[in-house]
Design goal:
191 residues; alpha/beta; two-stranded antiparallel sheet; 12 strands
Length: 191
């Protein structure tokens, strides 16, 4: 279908009394590190010495993925007659999560933050795309193993979870997962 990655999908949660979509969960494949974007241009070659600490050699959500999300969201809105509340999940966090860490008071940051946030080598603009579209209320990511942050930026809740398993990169003090309680009206809570 022309969308890069393997795990891009949308899961529809239906209303309790009909077959209409009440909520949507988007999953985005944040790829892997050091792909070749075009001849001779890799994440490694884009790693200039002076850059924000969060810019690392990870890949990023591509433009085609953002267009897939945008078109799917518009289609859901047309079918429902209104914007369908949604959340997005991804492995590597968007760069805006770094802004939350740097501005804890302004973003009501909670949770553990012990590692340098690691995002993709380029800011793909996925946060801006979701902010403009207006349907995503939550972006949940993983990738780091000692961070369990929860913040709000631009009206979107940004959550980062630590390790859930017992691998080499797991730490007992922040082991666990995040549970989201999503109501049919789009309201939510997490713990």
């Amino acid at each position: 279908d022309g969308v890069p990655g393997v795990t891009n999908y949308a899961t529809h949660i239906l209303a309790h009394d009909s077959d209409k979509v009440a909520y949507c969960i988007y999953a985005f494949d944040t790829m892997h590190k050091n792909p070749e974007f075009r001849d001779g241009v890799t994440t490694e070659s884009l790693m200039v010495p002076e850059r924000p600490k969060c810019y690392r050699k990870w890949d990023f959500i591509r433009f085609e993925q953002q267009m897939w999300y945008w078109e799917h969201s518009k289609k859901l809105e047309a079918q429902a007659g209104h914007v369908v509340r949604s959340m997005a999940i991804m492995h590597v966090p968007p760069h805006e999560m770094y802004l939350c860490v740097q501005n804890p008071e302004e973003t009501s940051l909670k949770g553990e933050h012990e590692e340098t946030l690691q995002c993709g080598v380029l800011n793909s603009g996925i946060f801006a795309t979701m902010l403009q579209r207006g349907d995503v209320d939550i972006i949940a990511a993983g990738h780091l193993h000692k961070d369990t942050i929860d913040a709000v930026y631009g009206g979107i809740r940004l959550c980062l979870d630590g390790c859930a398993g017992f691998s080499v990169k797991s730490f007992d003090h922040c082991r666990g997962g995040r549970v989201f309680e999503i109501n049919e009206d789009g309201s939510h809570s997490t713990h």
